[in-house]
Amino acid sequence: MTKIIALFNQAGGVAKTTVTQNLGYHLSLRQHRVLLVDIDPQASLTSFMGLEPADLDQTIYTALVPQNESTEEGLPIHKSVHGMDLVPANILLANAEQELIFAELRELRLQQVLAPIQQDYDYILIDCPPSLGILSQISLVAANYVLVPIQCQFKALKGTDSLLNTVARVRKRLNPQLKIAGFLPTLFATSNNLDKQTLVSLQQQLTQIAEVFPPIPRATALAEASAFGKPLALCPIKAPHILKLFDELALSIETLP
Ligand code: ADP
Ligand code: MG
User: Fold this and answer.
1) Considering the entire predicted model, what is its pTM?
2) Which of 135, 114, 113, 136 is nearest to 123 (CA)?
3) Does 109 contact ligand 1 (Cβ within 6 A)?
4) Is 189's C-beta closer than 6 angstroms to any atom of ligand 1?
5) pLDDT digits (tens, 9 = 90+) for 1-51
6) Whole-angstrom Cα distance, residue 60 to residue 142?
7) Ligand 1 neighbourhood includes 16 CB (under 6 angstroms)
8) Within 10 A of 91 (CB to CB), how many other CB atoms are there?
């Protein structure tokens, strides 16, 4: 059975895209067939994978909002990009929010376009935008799991209420199967005492809700890798401790109930 995982947090800059890309890569190293779906109009995942969003005619947008009713287009899948398949995005996706308002069964749009190809993959990772809007909602409807990257910052806990409410609402109305795979603390400054305290309180509060995975530390290697347009493991930069963490995360994701 395909595991469809939405990487979701309405806060921006918490490493959703970085985790989508590197978790996906480490799942592919473990011989799984992985599809990454970029559903953020900022298209960071598309760029982090080395594509130029502005050059693309076919994106998740053209699949979600067919431009012409008679030519329903399937998902444009770029095959074998660093060992994974990718559905890219670009800035046109920003129109989808408006254009889907009156679309029939709009909440099911992503689920519907994934359905015909889903059996080709073991894992489909959906990189959500930093909002609670329709693009995140349709991602949660299409997913069986939510993975929540969360920055080790005190204000992070404040946002979790609305995040969990959104998950609860989707579960109640449209997707009762949706599970929280866990929380992944990110951008953890290992030498900062405040971050250490914050991590402890995140762990205390969030373990009641779902598993809290070991934190991903701040590492320039990860920021550099995104600029390179590749997963960290394929970059010349050496950061074995980070690779090990992503490998262990991939293992935890493999064993999700
Ligand atoms: P989001 O998708 O949540 O907006 P990104 O994955 O785009 O977040 O990350 C935001 C920025 O932080 C990017 O420039 C990325 O390269 C950088 N970044 C992500 N994780 C780390 C990390 N562990 N250490 C340092 N920089 C990171
Ligand atoms: Mg992002």
Assistant:
1) 0.97
2) 114
3) no
4) no
5) 999 999 999 999 999 999 999 999 999 999 999 999 999 999 999 999 999
6) 14
7) yes
8) 13
User: Which of 53, 58, 57, 55 has the alpha carbon at shortest distance from 42?
Assistant: 53
The rounded distance, in Å, linking the Cα atoms of 164 and 5 is: 16
Angle, helices 16-29/220-228, rounded to nearest 10 degrees: 80
Report the nearest-CA residue for atom 26 of ligand 1.
223
